[in-house]
Amino acid sequence: MSTSASPDLHAFIRDLARRTGELQLKRYQDPGRVREKGPKDLVTEVDLLCEELLISEISRHCPQDAILSEERGGAISGSGRTWLLDPLDGTANYSRSNPLFCVCVSVVEDGRVTHAAVAAPRLGDVYHARLGGGAYRNDEPMRVSPTSRLEDAFLGADLSFFGKKGAKSLSYETPALQRLLGASWQIRALGSAGIRGAWLAAGYIDVSIGTRNTIWDYAPTALLVSEAGGRVTDLSGRHWSLEAETMLASNGRVHGELLKMLNPH
Predict the structure, then answer these.
(1) How many CB atoms lie within 10 A of CB 245?
(2) Are residues 131 and 158 in the same domain?
(3) Is-contact 82 109, C-beta < 8 A?
(4) What DSSP designation does 185 have?
(5) C-alpha to C-alpha distance for 176 and 124, rounded to whole angstroms
(6) Are both 109 and 160 inside the same structural domain?
(7) Average pLDDT of 9-29?
(8) Total structural domains in the chain?
(9) Fewer beta carbons within 10 angstroms: which end of the chain, N or C?
(10) Chosen domain end from 141, 160, 189
(11) What is the DSSP letter of 251?
(12) Enclosing domain of residue 20
């Protein structure tokens, strides 16, 4: 397979995400066995089938590349390319035939996300970006929203009513969330980090907040939002990297207000 800057590689990534989404659609109302791999963390038979498709195709076309996938694991290569895969993001939604689910595919090299594709087949969309090449929904260019005040902003975050002791997740009792709720217009809890990031890049929402380092979900958001004209940091305002534990992505215009709300001291 060609170099990371090649349009051919990007076309392969985009097509692979699309084909994986088609597999999800075929089993949309028949997810097979659903089990809980952790507290409130589901995996279905379709997760595993999608992962098998992704890994087999990547291994066939790019045999030298490393792969880090949600279910099988793996590691980021110290040199060369690594593929980050979430075969079925929004599994809880999918298990209930909720249309907000997707597949996330991204490529990293030298610590940078160079390609990303998020296919949401029930919505008919493939969101994709190449470093330095812009962000797109299908074939249409994407730009972040023009919202300039936090009080007019839609925030995307997946929240819990029951905060876990010691966890960094946002619950309704979290003081930072209470501040954001009071300062913003509305919060959107979509149940899919991949779609949340793609919708931010498309201008449908203004902010995406991530509080767990699920890098296969965060990496696509980082590239899509940056290429669509937005800003991506961690929750403290530091530059987002593959090692970051949290993510704050926005249209850029409300980022300063967000950081003040999240870090008041």
Answers:
(1) 13
(2) no
(3) yes
(4) S
(5) 35
(6) no
(7) 95
(8) 2
(9) C
(10) 141
(11) -
(12) 9-141
pTM: 0.91
Give me the torsion for CA of 50, 195, 85, 28, rounded to 10°.
-10
Q: Which residue is associated with the tokens 């060369």?
A: 80
- 217 annotated as a binding-site residue: yes
Q: How many residues does the chain have?
A: 265
C-beta separation of 56 from 66 below 8 A: no
Which CATH number is 189's domain given? 3.40.190.80
What tokens appear for 222 in the block?
């980082």
Note whether residue 181 is domain-resident. Answer: yes
At residue 5 the predicted structure's pLDDT band, cuts being 50, 70 and 90, is low
| 70 marked as binding residue | yes
Does residue 119 share a domain with residue 35? Answer: yes
Check which CATH number belongs to the domain holding 53 and give it. Answer: 3.30.540.10
pLDDT of 198 over the 80 cut = yes
Contact (CB, 8 A) for 129 and 140 = no
The residue type of 215 is I
CA distance 6 to 11: 9
Reported as a single tens digit per residue, the pLDDT across 218-241 is 999 999 999 999 999 999 999 999
Angle at 141 between CA 136 and CA 142, to 5 degrees: 75
Question: What is the residue whose two structure tokens read 């709300």?
Answer: 261
Specify whether 89 is located in the same domain as 25. Answer: yes
> How far apart are alpha carbons 155 and 33 in whole angstroms?
33
Residues 143-156 pLDDT 10s: 999 999 999 999 99
Last residue of one domain, picked from the residues 141, 168, 197: 141
Look at residue 4 and tell me if it is in a domain: no
Name residue 244's amino acid.
A
| Same domain (yes/no): 135, 174 | no
Task: Report d(CA 77, CA 58) in Å as an integer.
Answer: 15
What local confidence, expressed as pLDDT, does residue 176 receive?
Answer: 75
